[in-house]
Design a protein that fits this description.
This protein is of the alpha/beta class. It has five helices and seven strands, in the order αβαββββαβαβα.
Length: 133
């Protein structure tokens, strides 16, 4: 798939999860969550250290979400990203977008192992969502 096709496939389904969602509005984990909300998309914040983010209940991990998700946007350090990719693969999540700074060779390799449509090293979802609708 081309990068454009990967992005289309990621954005076609719903709901999504934002892993690394932050209560701090200056952080990208919060900005990414807000851009989903601004585009009227169903989204779940995932943060093991928060009970709510932007008025939404926050969940400690992907397995705790109240329903399956179509895709996951990850805004975490690379070492955490690797475990999130494993969780996503085990849960059958097929679309993952690694935001800049979340990437690692190990995460990319594990995503390929699980057959995940992985968007990495390309545009930020903040830009893509703003121009997709």
């Amino acid at each position: 798939m081309t990068e454009h096709q990967q992005i289309q496939a990621f954005l076609e389904g719903t709901p999504h999860a934002v892993v690394g969602a932050s209560r701090d509005r200056a952080k990208y984990g919060n900005k990414v969550l807000r851009v989903f909300l601004q585009n009227h998309r169903s989204v779940f914040p995932v943060n093991p250290n928060a009970t709510e983010v932007e008025g939404l209940p926050a969940y400690p991990d992907l397995a705790s979400l109240p329903q399956p998700v179509h895709g996951v946007s990850i805004i975490t350090p690379p070492s955490v990203t690797e475990s999130i990719i494993e969780q996503a693969g085990q849960l059958g999540i097929k679309h993952v977008w690694l935001q800049p700074g979340a990437e690692s060779d190990q995460a990319v390799s594990r995503a390929a192992h699980w057959g995940i449509n992985l968007i990495s090293g390309g545009p930020c979802i903040l830009v893509a969502l703003r121009y997709h609708e």
